[in-house]
Amino acid sequence: NSLGAMTIRDAIAYSSNVFMMAIGGGYEDQKGLGITRLMEYYAKFGIAETTGIELMGEEEGTIPGPAWKEKVFNDDWRLGDTYLTSIGQYAMQATPLQMLRGYAALANGGYLVTPHLQKDVQGERVPLDLERDALSVVQEGMRRAVIQEGGTARALERKDIAVAAKSGTAELGASKAMVNSWIAGFFPYEKPKYAFILMMEYGPRANTVGASRVMGKVFDWMSVNRPEYFGDTE
Asked: Is the separation of the CB atoms in 90 and 19 below 8 Å?
């Protein structure tokens, strides 16, 4: 890795593709998770399924795998496909709402919640039975992304609220010249109450204003116009 040796917390903070590829597909004497387990974990967090929100035409998305590739391309699955799927690329497709639901599960202790549009309506909560220690590591990595030098979500560091976040970039088309820039996370870090997601759709790769910077402006606006979100978390 060009950043040197790192822990999983640092890999999340720095959004290291190389680290995540090694975890998913393996590297030298380290065996990877493999595509079967990756598919299982993605599905566990609600990727490629409708969330159940009260909206017409909700898309499911795609988790690629050997059977999917055989059906779509009449071709065998290769290790390179696993590496790309490990970082959410290749043929992965997910809606912002699916991703928000997944990040909320990381924040709330491991429950996949059915979203609603009605205020104060509590959707169904499905326990994911996540390991407490593993969940804490992910949460800590997302906090480091905001507060650690070199973190990919530094634009969200604030004095009035502690935010945890994870950035993402989805390459578009064969040329990869355009990208969807993502930022997602939760706050307050010590006692999570809200999850958020923001996507800047179809922007030039060279754009210096990413989703993290824009979400930082959203937090600035909220602090003035919606201070109740930053208030008592009880």
From this structure: no
